[in-house]
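Thread title: Can someone regenerate the structure for this chain?

I was given the following input by a collaborator and told the matching structure tokens would be attached. They weren't. Posting the sequence so someone can regenerate them.
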Amino acid sequence: MDNGSPMAGFVLLAVGFAIYFLPTFVASNRKHVNGTSIFLVNLLLGWTFLGWVVALVWASSANIEKPSEKGAISPAISGDRACPFCAETIKLAAIKCKHCGADIDAVKAPRLKNGWVASVPCRDSEEQDRVRDAISALDLPAVQMIGLAIGAGPFETKDEAKQALAVLRNGPRLFSEVVYRDSVSGKYPPITD
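Best answer:
Regenerated them for you:
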């Protein structure tokens, strides 16, 4: 007297498992802050209907992880912002949203106050003016360094400053060195926007 196939029993077991651990799946999918606790309540008390319902309601609550809590890059550093019309992520310099097609005003990225700089030494103020103009012509930010030196930067990473160094060397044939320009030592004049 065979009452059913083994496959039917396996399918019934899989469906039962999915229903039993539904609160855990919901918490995991929503990246709930208390996901481990929800799993334990689901595992240990889920066999009671009340425990299962408590775990499901808890998993559905609004206590989920925020990207900023996980050390996400801030919009000022990443160069991204939210579209004012559809709230999707777009570039700071965008003038048209790629998601909703709305025309928007570009936002200039805030200037760093310290960071890595490709510093070009200058002999006199005339050469300093020429170097500043050459850096600006390459759409790089120009900054006053120690003495007559002018720098391209500051940049967030040393690699960005090295790229600026290569552009200065290959374009206007300006030779520079990469240095870190801080805002606390007092060696450098303050950067104003």
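The helical segments are 6-20, 22-29, 35-45, 49-59, 75-78, 125-137, 158-170.
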